Prior knowledge:
Blueprint (H helix, E strand, L loop, with lengths): L3 H23 L6 E2 L5 H9 L5 E3 L8 H4 L2 H8 L3 E7 L3 E2 L1 E3 L2 E4 L1 E6 H8 L8 E4 L5 H5 L12 H7 L5 E7 L4 E5 L3 E9 L1 E7 L10 E10 L5 E5 L6 E3 L21 E6 L3 E4 L4 E6 L4 E8 L4 H15 L4
Parallel strand pairs: 1-2, 4-10, 6-13
Antiparallel strand pairs: 2-17, 3-7, 3-8, 5-6, 8-9, 9-19, 10-18, 11-17, 11-19, 12-16, 12-18, 13-14, 13-15
The chain binds 2-oxoglutaric acid (AKG).
2-oxoglutaric acid (AKG) binds next to strand 11 and strand 18.
Amino acid sequence: MASAEARLEEVRRELRQFPTSVRELAVPASVPYLDGPPTPLEFQRDWVCPNRPCIIRHALRHWPALGKWSLPYLRAVVGDTEVSVAVTPDGYADAVRGDRFVMPAERRLPLGKVLDVLEGRAAHPGVLYVQKQCSNLPGELPQLLPDLESHLPWASEALGKMPDAVNFWLGEAAAVTSLHKDHYENLYCVLSGEKHFLLHPPSDRPFIPYELYTPATYRLAEDGSFEVVDEEAAEKVPWIPLDPLAPDLIRYPAYERARPLRCTLRAGEVLYLPALWFHHVRQSHGCIAVNFWYDMEFDLRYGYYQLLDTLSRTAGLG
Ligand SMILES: O=C(O)CCC(=O)C(=O)O
């Protein structure tokens, strides 16, 4: 009978093989484009059920926001409105820095001030990103709501629910969202500029390292310097330390076998980013976007992913 170590090694071998098998069976080589919004049936059948991303063109043509939204338009309509802004020294909010998981400093600023910085008319310490992910569009910028739909009807019908959150994103080119995943079916709409997504299917989990970090927050001092302040009595947070744009393959050699999908989302396009897909996001300077988060169904797929996650962790793969 094989020793426990030999059996564990066999589990590791299977886990390392698993992402390739799934890729061959079910992951496209690049993110496919659709020429218009799918019907609810098509969306559910061809994309949500197989947990497969796609980019949908011509789905926002009827939104006044498309064509209208620009930095001068935002200044005219909501320039005086205060919004919550994430501020970081290096553009990375919610990211591993050293041995900490560091969240951004939060500032309440009139959107016009953010626009001044984006347009180079004013300076502000650090990198600014309007990205509060708790329905900041209806919550903080309700004047913009007449410019778009409150949800994507074909998606809501397919998913049998309304979005949990409608988020507004506006930031500098230096603002980057580190690699992570969410339990949301994400419909991400670019209204102006471009977003660059790097994606991994959930099946790549054995190649993607997680470690536990003490949570902390940047504090922005009056003199413009940043300090990292630990959260009080908080539990450690599992997060991905790897930067997929410059992966440290000495430290995380398994990642060499991962095959990210990359895509650029342009104004008027909608990315369907399926639940549990890992994503890393960059943007053009002043890109304006809105996304809809629909809570995922916690079904068999979620159960399988949890099993893969537990196996990868306990087998010491990441
Ligand atoms: O646009 C971004 O910077 C990040 C988007 C994201 O992570 C999300 O929608 O879950």
